[in-house]
Amino acid sequence: MPKLWNETIDKHRAAVRNAALDAMATLVAEHGLVGLTMSQIAEQAGIGRATLYKYFPDAHAVLTAWHEREITAHLDQLAAAADAAGPALERLQAVLQTYAQIQHHSAGHHGGELATLLHRGDHVDRAQKRLHDFIQDLVSEASQAGDLRDDVPADELAGYCLHALTAASTTPSRDAVHRLVTVTLAGLRPARPTPLAPPAHHHR
């Protein structure tokens, strides 16, 4: 087949896929996740149901593909936050702030419902691994620069950050999200030796 023909087919496939995923996003925002049908998705996307079935076996497959696209966009956001030149600590702070805001925003858009329906699929596990490694590298770099504690492995500190910031999903405001990030970062600072308490004076 001529190259141009192949490119045209690829563009058509991508357009149909994206239309279906955009339709899923709209339907989820309007009606929630439960009970979505292929007919609703096809109608919202402006494509035939038969065409939709060529790309996805069922509504759950559309949901999973849409969720994958969302996760990829979030990872891109985090990478962009770290792109700014500057010390590793500043880049880590920007990434954690962005991650916390994503958690906060996603919770208001069917976060728990989505997790229940998707049962932590492979795509979620892969994304979590990439995210953990990404944070770990920044922590390690900042620690080597002397800006973060070095008495705890970077792997464990990365896990601490990610677990602590899941609390952003239940915070009431963006200010609260910001405070949570500040507290999380404080836990990463180099441990200061505890000053010895002055000896107690016993009165007779």
Concise description?
The chain has helices spanning 3-31, 38-45, 49-55, 59-83, 88-107, 111-118, 122-144, 154-165, 174-186. By secondary structure, the chain is mostly helical.
Tell me what the structure shows:
- With 204 residues, the protein is mainly alpha-helical.
- The chain folds into 2 domains: 1-56, Homeodomain-like (Arc Repressor Mutant, subunit A, Orthogonal Bundle), CATH 1.10.10.60; 60-191, Tetracycline Repressor, domain 2.
- It contains 9 helices and no strands.
- The relative contact order is 0.09.
CATH class of the largest domain: Mainly Alpha
Query: Uncertain runs with pLDDT below 50, 5 residues or more?
Result: none
Judged by helices, strands and strand pairing, the structural class is mainly alpha
Morphology call: elongated
Question: Count the helices. How many?
Answer: 9
Query: Average pLDDT, to the nearest integer?
Result: 85
* CATH-defined superfamily of the largest domain: Tetracycline Repressor, domain 2
The portion of residues forming beta strands comes to under 5%
SSE string: HHHHHHHHH
The termini sit apart by 102 Å
Annotated CATH architecture of the largest domain: Orthogonal Bundle
Number of domains: 2
Helix content estimate: over 70%
What integer value in Å does the Rg equal? 23 Å
- Report the count of strand segments: 0
CATH fold naming of the largest domain = Tetracycline Repressor, domain 2
The profile of the biggest β sheet is: none
